[in-house]
Amino acid sequence: MVAPVVTVFRHRGIQKWLPRMFPCRQYATQVNHEPSKLRNMALMAHIDSGKTTLTESILLQSQYLSSAGSVDTGSTTTDFLPAERERGITIQSASIPVKWKDWTFNLIDTPGHADFGMEVESASRVVDGAVVLIDAVEGVEAQTKGVWRQLDRYDVKSRILFLNKLDRAGASFRTSMLSVLANRLHPRPMAITLPIASFDPQDYARAEPGIQGVVDLVNWEVWKYDSEGSPSVHVLPRTQAELEQSDLFPSSHPLVNHLLPARISLLDNLAQVSESLFETLIALPEDPSSYLSLRSSDILPHLRAATLRNDILPVICGSAFKHIGTELLMNYVGELLPSPVDVEANTKALAPNAPLRMLAWKVGWDKRKGWMTFVRVYSGTLKSQTSVLNATQNQREKISKIQLLYAAEAQDVDSLPFGSVGAVMGLKYTRTGDTLVGVAGGSNASSLRDIVPPPAMMSVSVIPHSHADLEPVESALNALARTDPSVRVETQEGQLLVHGLGALHLEIVESRLRDEWKVNFEFGRRRVSFRECLGTGNISGVSDMWSTEIGGHAVQVQVSLAVRALEDDEEGDPFWDGNVILTTDGKRLPPGDLHADLNDPLAQVARGLSSTLSSSPNTTLALSRLCIQVKKIDFPKEAHPSVLAGASAAVLRNIVRAAGQGDLMEPYIRLKISVDEGTVGRVVEDLGEHGGEVLDLDAADEELEPDVDEGTVYIPPQWLSPSTGKAAKSTSARMKRTIVAIAPLSQMLDYSTRLRALSGGHGLFDMAGEGFRRVSAQRTVEILQELGRL
C-alpha cells in the first residue's frame, strides 16, 4: 500500500528569480497585535553547534531569504559585524522578526563563546522560550551547561532541544540523549522526531553517516528531503500491518519495526505528566496499533502544557546546514513554546489601556543612527514621538523613532504592543537593564528585574598614542561599556584599564575601538583580574568620622560600617562583584547607579563603597567576599548628599587598610581536552606543571550510560545513527581520550599553542569559567611581584 503524500513545494528556481524582479522585501509596518501568536525565543548553544546556520535556514524556509548565507564565507544575515565575518563566530546577539504560518517569532541568535556571555545573559532576560542546540557529534558541552544555567537564572522554563549536525560522521542521537541525562539538564528529554539516516537499509550496515529524512512521531508523518533540502511530507499508515507494507521504506529497513514502539513510548511517557492523556490511553483497545489512532490534535495540547510547565524537554533532530528538520522545528516552536500571554502573571498587563512598562535589554551603537536601545514591552503599548520615564535612572527620555531590526537592516513602525521586541532611537541615558515606563504615574513604578553582568576575568591597560588622544579614547571606552556592560573601565594610578570576560573578548574590544570609534591607542599586556579578600587585622578602632571642607567651612560626616568576611557557604551578590552590601535594616543595597534617585543618601554611600571595593588600598586589586552593613549615616543638613560618597569611600578604605592584606584569589577555568591516547601523558604532565588539577580521564568514545528509567525516558537505539555503531567503531584508527581538568586562567592564556605542540596538532579543547579560588602563599608572592607590589 502506498501511503498518502502531501508534497511541500519549494521551487528554488522561483525563489531565486523573484528577488531579482521584485528586490524589495516585504517588511511589516505594524507589529502583530495578537500577543498569543508571538514567540519571543532565542537560539542558544555551545560555540560551533550551528546556531547561526540554523538561523539562516529558518530565514530561508520562511522566505525572508532566497538563498542561505554561510558562516564560512561570512555571508550570514545575523553575523554582520566585520569581526564576526572575519572570525566566523557570533559576537553579539542579533534579533530578527520571522513570520511563519500565523505566528511571529522574535528570534534572537546569541553567541556561543563564554567571552560573550553578557549577550546571552541579556537575551535570556527577555525571551519566553529557547531552542538549545546540541552538536550530535559532541553531545552536551561546557557552554551548553552555561547557557542552561543562564536560562534557569531568568526562569525561562520552556525549551526545545535541537540535535544538530546529524549528517556528520560520528553523530549519535542516542549518545546525545544520554549526555542530556548524564549532565542533568533535564530528567525527561522526549524525542518527538527520529532521524532517518538513509532510505537504503544497506547504508545502515555500512555505517554510512547522513540524514535523509525525519519521522514526526506526533503528527505521524515522514519528511523526506532531496539533495537541496526540499521536503516531501508523507502520512504514515495507522496500523502496524499497513506500516510494514508501505512503500515509504523497503521491507528490510530497520526503522519500520521501531516506529510503533517509539510512538508508544512517547505517549506513555507523556501520559505520566498528563492525567487526561493517561485516561485517554487507558480507554484505547489493547491492540498496540491503537496508539496510532490518536491524531496530533489529541496529543499537542498535552505536549504544549507539559512543555510550558517544564515537565518535559521536547527533542527534535536534523541538520541545519542541509535544512533538514528546520520547518519541523519552526512548527513545534509555534505549537509548544509560550507566548507573552502564557508567561505574564499579571492579567492587568494584558489590557489594551494598561500603563506602559518595558525593559531595555540591550544598547547598541550605529555610526549612522547613533544610539539604539532594544526593548521588550511588558505592559501597554509604546508609540513613537512620545516621552517615557526611565524608572531606574529617574530620567525622562524622548522616543524619536521605533524600528523592527532585521539584523543589520531596519524598518520603521509606529508602535510596539504588549509582548513585542524592537529598537527605539533617541534615548540618551538608558543603559542595559533599565526599566522604562509611561510618564503618567511613572514615578511610582517599580523596576523590572535587572540583568546581571558576569564578573570580569581579565584586564588590559589602554595607552593613548598622545595626550590629545586621551579624551577620545576615554569617551570611546565609556560608549563601548554602555553597549556591553561586561566591559568595565577604570583608572588605577593614572593608568587606564579595561576589564573583560577573556582574551577573545578583549581582542574584540580592541578591534571595535579601532573600527567603530576610530581612536588611536595601543593595548598593553593582558593580565588576569585577581581579587583581594579582607585581612584578619583588628578593625574595631577605626573611626567612622570623616572631615572635609565645603565652601571654606569644616564639615564632619559620619558613616558607620560593620565589615566582615563572608563565610564559605555565603553567596556573594553579583551586582557587587561577590560582595554583599546591606542597609541598616538588613536589606540588600543596590549599587549607586541602580538607584532611582541619585540624591538618595544611600545611593551616594553605595557610590563611595563601590569606589573603594574596586581598588584595595593594599594591592589596588578589586575587593571580594566582603559583607558590609551600613549602620548609621549622619551629615549636616546644609551639605549635599554627595558628600557621603567621599565619606563612605574613605571610611571603608581605612577599615580595609587596618585589616591588612587578605588572601588573594584568581580565576580558574574548567578544561575539556580531547587528545590521542599516545599524548595523554604529556598533556596531563603539562597541566600539573601549570597548576592544573585533573578531575576525570576517560575514553572519549566510551559509551555514556547514566542510570535511565526506561519507563519515563525513551532512549533510541544506537543503530539509529549508523556511523556510531559497531561497524563505525571498528574503522576508528585512533583511540581518543578526554581529560577534564581545572586550572588557573593565568596559566592557560597560551594553551592553544601549547596543546598544538603537545598533541602534534590533533588536540582539541574548550574552556568555561569556574569562578575564583584562593591562592597559596607562594602564588600570592608571585602575583604581588607581577603587580609590582614587592
UniProtKB/TrEMBL annotation:
Residues 36-341 form the Tr-type G domain. InterPro entries: EF-G-like_DII, EFG_II, EFG_III/V, EFG_V-like, G_TR_CS, P-loop_NTPase, Small_GTP-bd, T_Tr_GTP-bd_dom. GO terms for cellular component: mitochondrial matrix. GO terms for molecular function: GTP binding; GTPase activity. One of its GO terms (biological process) is mitochondrial translation. This is P-loop containing nucleoside triphosphate hydrolase protein. It comes from Lentinus brumalis. The keyword Transport does not apply. Keywords: GTP-binding, Hydrolase, Mitochondrion, Nucleotide-binding, Protein biosynthesis. CDD domains: Elongation_Factor_C (cd01514).
